[in-house]
Amino acid sequence: EESGGEAGAAAADEPPEELLSNEEKVLKLVREEGGRIKQQEIVEAFDWTEAKTSQVVRDLRDEGKLEGFRLGRENVLRLPEEDDEI
What is the pLDDT of residue 65? Predict the structure, then answer.
């Protein structure tokens, strides 16, 4: 029996959006943006507060899943470079 929603909208290996953790949502968005995004864009994309966004981003940076740098007054986030292919 089909449960409502857009069947096949999500890739087979990804859970539906509402089941993603905040961290997973941010990483997915960064990947969709080509691996780099302004922190402010995350605030707007998810309608989160600055504080909540900062906390999620801080957790991801602590885990090494995201890198951040300042660009003028903006916080820019990016996926870590994959340096495994040596």
Answer: 97
pTM of the full structure: 0.76
- Could you give the CA distance from residue 19 to residue 27 in angstroms, rounded to a whole number? 14
Give the integer Cα–Cα distance in Å for 66 and 77.
7
Q: What CA–CA distances, in Å, run from 19 to 70, 74, 80? A: 31, 30, 24
Looking at the chain, the whole-number percentage of residues with pLDDT higher than 70 is 77
The half-sphere exposure of 17 on its side-chain side, counting CA atoms within 13 A, is: 9
Closest CA to 64 of 43, 80, 78: 80
Cβ atoms 25, 17 nearer than 8 A: yes
pLDDT at 41 over 70: yes
Edge-to-edge order in the sheet of strand 74-78: 36-38, 74-78, 67-71
